[in-house]
Amino acid sequence: MRLSPIDVNWAPGAPVKVAIPLKKPLKALRVPRDAVVMDGDGHKVVKVIRESEVYQAQPVAIEVLSGSELYVKIRGDVYPGDRVVVRGAVGLKADDVVTLVDGELKNAG
After folding, report:
1. Cβ-count burial of 2 within 10 angstroms (0-12 exposed, 13-18 middle, 19+ buried)?
2. Residue 29: closest CA among 63, 69, 70
């Protein structure tokens, strides 16, 4: 492969690391690994939905695509900007009320 770098001062023959995607990139979202809950129905995250002045839990089925020690890439009904529960999501059910305390969401029940 020949490269024609512009405004780069590389020496001829210098080693470089190149990544060439072989597949189309997957549409995925990166979330903390601790946000993923595994139960008998598969993997889920618990989104936090604001209804009027109340925050409610909303479990969402997801597919785990890949991951590292701290984060995983997921696909499902979760979008950038959505709030997800990172710790304590295991016991939350749909429409459980959670509250915001000191900048963090806490289970109100």
Report:
1. exposed
2. 63
The answer to whether residues 35 and 84 touch, using CB atoms and an 8 Å cutoff, is yes
Task: Give the span between the Cα atoms of 54 and 52, in whole angstroms.
Answer: 6
Give the contacts of 32 (CB within 8 A, at least 6 positions apart): 70, 71, 86
| pLDDT in single tens digits along all 109 residues of the chain | 676 767 777 787 888 787 777 776 668 899 999 999 998 889 999 999 988 888 899 999 999 998 888 999 999 999 888 888 888 888 899 999 987 665 555 555 5
Output the pTM of the full model. Answer: 0.67
